[in-house]
Amino acid sequence: MNAHHSNDTVITAYKDAPARTITAGGVSYAYRELGPKGGIPVVFFVHLAANLDNWDPRIVDPIARGHHVITFDNRGVGGSSGQVPDTIEAMAEDAVTFIRALGFDKIDIFSFSLGGFVAQALVDKHPGLVRKLILTGTGPAGGKDIDKVAGVTYLDILRATLTRSDPKEFLFFNRNRSGKPAARAFVNRLKERTASRDVPVTLKAFRTQLQAIAKWGRSAPADLSRITQPTLIANGDNDRMVPSVLSPDMHRRIKGSELIIYPDAGHGGIFQFHDRFAPLAVAFLDR
C-alpha cells in the first residue's frame, strides 16, 4: 500500500490501533482510536487495575466497524501521567477533561466494572455530554457489597499467583467446565496486540483505585432516575466482584433501560459471550 493512501484506510482491528497521547490539565492521557471518524464516538471506560491492553478485541472490533471507538487510560493509569484520584467522582472529571481535549461535546460510553462507576458519576454531573450508556459488570453508588471488592480481589490475586495464572481467570469467570476455557480464551485474546503495548498499572494506582471503589460502595445511593439516556446493562449471573443483583437493581432504577444477564457466567460474562453480546451492543448504539 502506498504511504499517501494510508489516511484513507480505516483501522477496525484494535490490535492495530495506533498508540496516541493528548495533554490536558497537565496530564498526558494515553489513548487509542479506531473505526470510521465522524458521528458520535464510543468512549470505553476500563476496569480496575486495567490499561488499554485489557479490552477484548472481540468486543471492540465489532463496534469499531461502524463507530469511532476511543479507549483511554485515565489519570495515573498505565501510560497516562499523574496520580490516580481516590474518588470515583474525581476520575469522572478527569475523563471529561480528556474527552473535551479531543474536541467532543457528545459521546456514547461503553463501560465495564470500575469504568461503569466512573461512567455513572460522569453522567450525573455532565448529562449533556452523553448520548447512550452501556453499563457492564458494574453497580450503583452505595451498591450492596461493592466495598468488599478489595478483599475478593486480593484473594484471587493470591490464588492466581500460586497457580501462575492471570487473576482475571478467577475474578471474571466461573471455575467450571464452561468458565475455565472461556477464561483462557479471553486472556489469550488480550495478547493479540504485539506492537506498542501499554504500560502496566502500578501497585500504587491499583490500591488507590480500590480505595475509590470502597468509598463508592459506602456512599449514599445515587438517584438513578436522573439517568435519562438510553442505557444497556449487562452482566453474568454469578459476578463475584460486583454482585450480579446490582444489575437488575440498576435496570429497575434507570427508566427504559435494557438488561442482559448471561447464565453460568461471572463478572466477565460479556467477554465469555462476546459473540452474542457484541451484536446486541452494536444494535443498541445504532438504534
Automatic annotation (TrEMBL):
One of its GO terms (molecular function) is hydrolase activity. This is Alpha/beta hydrolase. Residues 42-271 form the AB hydrolase-1 domain. Keywords: Hydrolase. It comes from Devosia insulae DS-56. The keyword Hydrolase applies. It comes from the Bacteria. InterPro entries: AB_hydrolase (IPR050471), AB_hydrolase_1 (IPR000073), AB_hydrolase_fold (IPR029058). Transmembrane segments: none annotated.
